[in-house]
């Protein structure tokens, strides 16, 4: 049997620091390849990853994903090099263009030309990690180098779904981490990225993608959790995710979810039966055997199937999900 590669991905809504560390330790024990800690408007993922690095032994640790608006290339390079040291070389830097809601509503910055910003920051970070000098924006400023040993081979993953950001990933990334893309669309874009990289003489990049995942012996309880998180992303997280999902032929279903969760101005966690295809495409839920079967369809698309853990769920559901989806679970 071919060995599958699995990772764990959290959402920025998971704010229980002790629970995140506990998940990372279990994922390390179960043989997962990588553990991604998200960042939004709550926990600082770089600080949390430093803690996780001290209590894990083997698993790779990723900032998944740091906004290119919230830190300069210099601070990103310092954080990446420091986490590389703390984790004995297990750190992966994830970068993304974020959303207008977070950039303007949290960081107070204008959200303009996001693909250009992503390219500029990713290129700047890679240059600094390679030991090159910063490019000063101020005339006559003395350009500095990173005050740590260079880490030119530190992996950089880029989250991208749009045409322009996909090209940035093809040009500058070691890994691609798409969110809310259907499996057939992931496969199509991965092939496009592969052609772009082959034309530039670059090696293939790692494709890391997968569904929001929850295991529960009660299928309806599992669906409730998967629906709550899906509804939040589509009805309360700005316009990026609804636009991305709608552009893949699911606009009618997205509108059904938004309408079902609009009464109080915030997501209530409702995915109507008529929008079930959204759960079929972007989540894996049910009993352990059912979830393992659903994840196999992602193993055919991604190099690393990312097991997304919904925020706020109890430890028994988390543990059951991680154990069922682990690479050595019989998947």
Task: Write up what this structure looks like.
Residues 4-299 form the Luciferase-like domain. It comes from Nonomuraea soli. InterPro entries: F420-G6PD/mer (IPR050564), Luciferase-like_dom (IPR011251), Luciferase-like_sf (IPR036661). With 331 residues, this protein is of the alpha/beta class. The protein has 2 domains: 6-217 and 287-325, TIM Barrel; 218-282, no CATH class. Helix content is 47%, strand content 14%. It is built from 12 helices and 10 strands. The protein has helices spanning 17-30, 45-55, 73-86, 100-105, 114-129, 163-172, 183-199, 219-236, 240-260, 276-282, 288-299, 315-325; strands spanning 6-10, 34-37, 60-67, 91-96, 156-159, 175-176, 206-209, 212-215, 283-286, 304-309. Strands 1-2-3-4-5-6-7-10 form an 8-stranded parallel barrel, surrounded by 7 helices. A two-stranded parallel sheet has the order 8-9. Strand 1, helix 1 and strand 2 (34-37) form a beta-alpha-beta unit. Helix 8 (219-236) crosses helix 9 (240-260). The mean pLDDT is 94.
